[in-house]
Amino acid sequence: NRWESEAGKNLLISIIINSDFLLPEKQFYLNKLVSLAVSDVLIEIFPQKEVQIKWPNDIYYGDRKIAGILIENSIRSNGSWQWAIIGIGINVNQVVFDGLPKVTSLKSILPITVDKDELLTKIIDKLKMYFKFYYKNGSESLNLEYESYLFRKDKPSTFMSPDKSTFTGIIRGVSPSGKLELQMEDSNKEFDLKELKLLY
């Protein structure tokens, strides 16, 4: 996966953490923690709540992508989770995105030049807060918070299958393993990332 950026314009960071506080089968909870931290910081910056989490790893402002998250995990031979590298990209002061129509940035919305160091500090502080939140409250409270941000939740949406066929479903949530939970016409189903693409 790639994140394209003009030199010096955006915030592109990698954070290494000891992730043995989570079971390997709950890897997606780390994605939820990071998504919530980034979303909370962006909501503090914007005057209105337009920030949403687009499953599985994008942050949107309205219908445009403003940030992305990619997490690389290291699993020990005994199956335990050793560490994770959290990659975060946020479009900050770049305003031209050639060939990327559904993209925006902080400066495009506000419009002001944002201090990237200050933004980074806020992201780190918010990550620490959400880690403590998870320790104290567990996964159920985290799920409720995450799903309150979920892009197009409870709205009929169009999806594309790997064979290019399209279908309609309603996003109802995300499973503990990170699969998208859809209400279909005749049943409820869970889908992995490679099994569908959201077209809106």
Helical residues, percent: 25-40%
| End-to-end distance | 22 Å
What's the β-strand tally?
10
Uncertain spans: none
Order of helices and strands: EHEEEEHHEEEEE
> Count of helical segments?
3
Oligomer: single chain
Shape: globular
Strand order of the largest sheet: 1-5-4-3-2
Strand content: 25-35%
- The helix/strand class is alpha+beta
Describe the main β-sheet briefly. 5 strands, antiparallel
Radius of gyration: 17 Å
Mean model confidence by pLDDT:
89
Strand and helix layout:
Elements: E1 11-18, H1 28-45, E2 51-54, E3 58-61, E4 64-75, E5 81-90, H2 106-109, H3 116-148, E6 156-160, E7 166-174, E8 180-183, E9 188-191, E10 197-198
Helix pairs in contact: 1-3
3D architecture notes:
Helices cover 28% and strands 31% of the residues. The two termini are 22 Å apart. Helix 1 (28-45) packs across helix 3 (116-148). With 200 residues, the chain is of the alpha+beta class. 23% of the residues are buried.
